[in-house]
Specification:
With 261 residues, this protein is mainly beta. It has a single domain, classed as Beta Barrel (Porin), CATH 2.40.160.40. It is built from 1 helix and 15 strands. Strand 2 (50-63) and strand 3 form a beta hairpin. The termini are far apart.
Length: 261
């Protein structure tokens, strides 16, 4: 890893840990719990499908302008023997017999500062998030890299009368497992949403990032979603997605349900 990447990783770690420490002393103002199921499948440049079921449980604490969240996921992967699930769910397909592995995935910790920037008319807002992905998935069974990843991202929102435009730009520093060289990458997304009924929105987002593996195609994915917020603080969403490169999944689908206290 380059000196620049090493310094950036230490900087992100210090920021995330420092913000976690700050948030732990803040007065609680809100808490939410969310879970769901996500299914993706694709060949990822191989000759057989690699399919996975991802079931995350996320708790989020809101304290003033801070949001602190932790995600504990269950992961089930059906793939040819020797497949390695890389960072961000980007597999390196194997060539052995089909096998199914399951267990705890990589735990993800996030800390967000809301409204880092906000226009006077409240039509634009910018948030910043530090994220730490812990290498808790079992790398000996091909379910993860066994290493920690660190990222920082900025999320911008522009609010119009009947349309919300949103976008993300960030940088991710990879932990380096044995025998695999992973690239540190920029990532970005852009999308928008519109109301289609009371407390219901329809949205679309396009995500792009270089592959974690230098010789693989860049990732390009498009997703369409519908979300609804009920009058009693339940929130639901459903989405479909597709990829546009060999490194992206052919298709994905999922739903989530959450409750905000």
């Amino acid at each position: 890893m380059s000196m620049t990447s090493s310094c950036l990783r230490r900087f992100i770690v210090l920021c995330v840990l420092g913000l976690f420490s700050f948030a732990s002393y803040a007065q609680q103002q809100g808490f939410s719990v969310k879970t769901g199921v996500q299914y993706t499948t694709g060949e990822y440049g191989g000759t057989q499908d690699v399919s996975d079921i991802y079931v995350p449980v996320t708790g989020t604490l809101i304290t003033g302008s801070w949001g602190l969240s932790a995600t504990l996921p269950y992961l089930q992967v059906k793939a040819p023997g020797g497949t390695q699930i890389g960072p961000g769910g980007e597999p390196i397909p194997g060539t052995g017999d089909m096998a199914t592995e399951s267990g705890v995935g990589d735990v993800i910790l996030r800390l967000t500062y809301f409204n880092l920037l906000r226009s006077a008319d409240k039509r634009f807002a910018l948030d910043v998030t530090g994220k730490l992905k812990l290498g808790t998935a079992d790398e000996t069974r091909g379910m993860g890299t066994g290493e920690n990843d660190y990222s920082i991202q900025f999320d911008g929102y522009s609010f119009f009368d009947t349309f919300t435009l949103f976008g993300t730009i960030g940088y991710k520093v990879r932990g380096q497992p044995q025998d695999i060289v992973l690239e540190d990458v920029w990532f970005a997304s852009i999308g928008g949403s519109v109301p289609i009924a009371t407390r219901t929105r329809l949205g679309m987002a396009f995500d792009a990032r270089p592959s974690a593996y230098k010789t693989n195609d860049d990732l390009r994915e498009l997703s369409v979603y519908i979300s609804r917020r009920s009058a009693n603080d339940w929130r639901y969403s459903l989405y479909l997605s597709t990829g546009f490169s060999d490194s992206s999944p052919d298709m994905g689908a999922g739903f989530s349900v959450g409750y905000h206290y």
